Amino acid sequence: xxxxxxxxxxxxxxxxxxxxxxEATKQWYLTVLQARIQFANDFLxxxxxxxxxxxxxxxxxxxxxxxxxxxxxxxxxxxxxASLGDLVYTYKRLKAAGILPVWCVNHxxxxxxYYKDPDGNRVEMQVDNFPTVEELNAxxxxxxxxxxxxxxxYDPDRLVEKFEGGTPVEELIxxxxx
Length: 178
Known about the structure:
Blueprint: E1 15-19, H1 22-32, E2 36-40, E3 44-48, E4 56-60, E5 76-81, H2 84-96, E6 103-106, E7 110-116, E8 122-128, H3 133-140, H4 144-147, E9 152-153, H5 156-164, H6 169-172
Parallel strand pairs: 1-4, 5-8
Antiparallel strand pairs: 2-3, 3-4, 6-7, 6-9, 7-8
C-alpha cells in the first residue's frame, strides 16, 4: 500500500458572494479592500487587491432575500494586515468614508475589527498579536485562550488615540489594554 502523505492547498485563492445589493456591495469591497476590478459586467464582478487574478467574486442576484445572519453558513471572512499601524490606518480611512466596524475585539491571538458589507456579510480586519507562529501556538495551548475564547471588546477610537500617542504596540495588543 502506498504511504499516505499530507497534501494541502498552497493558499486560499478567493471567495464568491451572491449579492442582492450588487453595485453597493461591489463599491464597498473596492473601498474596504482598496481593490481593483479585474472583470465586471451586470452579473459578475471579479476583484483583487494583490497579484492574485481575483480574491473576491460577486454574483448579482437581486431577488435573493437579505442575509439576516440567522441562517447556517459562513459567519465571516478575515483579512490580516501587516501591522497594528496598518489596521489603525485602515480604520481611519474607512471611518472617513462612513464605514464603521460593528464589533471591535481583541481575541488574544488577534486584534480585530468586524464590518458588515451591504448584504450583511461580516468581514474581519485583523492583525496578529504574536510575532511568530511558535509564540502564538504556545499561547493558544497555555490555557489562556480557554479562559476567554471570544476576547475583550475595545473602542477603536481609543485604540487610535493611544497608538498615535505613542503607546507601545506590545502594550496595545494585550487583551483589555484599550
